[in-house]
Amino acid sequence: MSAKPPGKTRAQVRAELAAARAAGQIPSGDLDYPPPAPAASYKTRAQVRAELARARAAGEMSSGDLDYPPERPPATRKTRAQVRAELEAAKAAGEVSFGDLDYPPEPR
After folding, report:
1. Between the CA of residue 29 and those of 21, 34, 35, 39, what are the distances in Å?
2. Confidence of residue 95 (pLDDT cuts 50, 70, 90)
3. 34: cis peptide before it, omega within 30°?
4. I want to staple 43 with a disulfide (CB 3.0 to 4.6 A). Which of 7, 47, 98, 102 is the partner?
5. Angle at the Cα of 52 from the Cα atoms of 49 and 54, rounded to 5 degrees
6. How many CA atoms lie within 13 A of 63 on its CB side?
7. Mean pLDDT, rounded, of the chain
């Protein structure tokens, strides 16, 4: 027969239970199960504030449900006049269709 390793004493189990309760690791019902893990933050308050300021300046912050997720501004460098000129050229070349009857557009 193999020798059974000695188990914990009653005092050791009670000490572990008291330590777990003190650390908030013992749930007290269904609402707090599993117990939340403590949050670890590695950023300073100044770093978080700087990130927030950058996000606000870039338009990445939403202000409610109606604009969530926040839309990013289009990444285009064309002027309004350039876009209109491209549209007129596409219309002249027959590359723009209107409605379902002329889809896909056929060159004229």
Report:
1. 14, 10, 10, 22
2. confident
3. yes
4. 47
5. 110
6. 2
7. 81
Give residue-wise pLDDT tens across range 13-47. 999 999 988 887 787 777 767 667 777 778 899 99
Supply the pLDDT for residue 10. 93
Which amino acid, 38?
A: P
pLDDT at 61: 80
Model confidence at 65: pLDDT above 70: yes
How wide is the angle at C-alpha 68 spanned by C-alphas 63 and 69, nearest 5°?
A: 120
User: How many residues are there in the chain?
Assistant: 108
Instruction: Report d(CA 93, CA 108) in Å as an integer.
Output: 7
What's the token pair of residue 62?
Answer: 């939403």
